[in-house]
Amino acid sequence: MKKLDSALIKTIKVNHQSFFRSHKDKGVSVRIKHLKELKKVLNEKEDEILKALYLDLKKPAFESFSSEVLMVFKELDLQIKKIKEWSAPKRVAGSILNFPSQDFILSEPYGTVLMISPWNYPFQLVMIPLIGSIAAGNTVVLKPSESAPHTAKILIEILEKVFPQDWVTTIEGDAVIAQLLLKEQWDYIFYTGSTDVGKIVAKAAAEYLTPTTLELGGKSPCIVDGTAPLKKTARRIVWGKFLNCGQTCIAPDYVLVKKEHKPMLIDALIIEIKRFYGDNAQDSKNYGRIIHKKHFKKLEADLKNQKIIYGGEKSLESLFFGPTLVDEPSMKSSLILEEIFGPILPILSYETENDIDVILTKLKNPLAFYVFSSHKKFINQMMTRYSFGGGVVNDSIVHFTNPNLPFGGVGNSGIGSYHGKYSFDLFSHKKAIVKRSFWFDLPQRYAPYPKSIKNLKSILKKL
Fold it and tell me: Predicted confidence band at 3 (pLDDT cuts at 50, 70, 90)?
């Protein structure tokens, strides 16, 4: 870990560029070797990782393992297994206009990737994109969040044990350091965090036309039409919403329930919250905490003048903020206009599909989109009519766990997607290659061109 000024940043970047040039042609075997070593070290450090996550966010051990550590292991296994296949030149069909030729796509790493990571899943949201970037052949300059210092510390120990310093460099710092990093020209930038900061990153990248991935957030709706089992619906909403104390970018941000089913859903949600965390969530070993006082006070301000129908208990001293349900907040309130990113769940109601459309049009392009229904027509309408990053029918969050699905946003919720092969492709430039033979040439392609091209046009259009 390094404390930076602009001169040191330039030195780090130059060293990374030199390392990249010297290792670019060494093939995938070196990458596989280091990723296998990374897996070995992660196994050795697993208990320390879980402890760090608890110290930063009071995450229960099972929650940390299932939502962070396990996903990293799965990603590692997949990348190690598939790198050779994904890296190989891909033969594609040639064009008759280039006959005879052999046509290929070559995957080429970009170079040095700047990666700025968040605090809410401070292990997994660092490691999964980092693994993809390394698998594709890049070097990485990483800035983990200063708000999760214990996890950052164990990350540094792990990465320094596995990778040479000029292959992966981890840098400690706050927003000032991030701004210094963004002043430099990188070969790729990968940012995970808020939409507001994402815009700053995009502007910095535009200065050099740097390719960029932005993993942001937004107002992820949870639409309940009352035709699916309400008890299971409530259980799955509560799980997705209050996991990690609500500090999940794809958590249900608000519920939009058909008016006639609203009282029953609220009752079911309260029953499930108590089933999960007991009558007093502050005493539960299964419930986390807010990351820091600044975010706590933001959530506290969000609740002012709201109609709380369950919860609302909180303690600034311990950063406890209990599971909270809010009834019909104003469409002009911060609970509706801003991503909540905490354990507050607004309950809105609708009567017609036009009511749904008004709200979803206003809060467009969410990162995630959830529909609980047994009506296929309604489900299909919701899934096709609106733009969002990823969706789930009759559950929440679970799409994130499938490496065969791309994970990412659209518009305000992000640019680009990753996980599994999508990570490898994201961090690889695809070069188009045509290899021609000399044994045949179409004479008409060269000047002087034929005086009459009517017949030739007809032939070429049919090829």
Answer: low
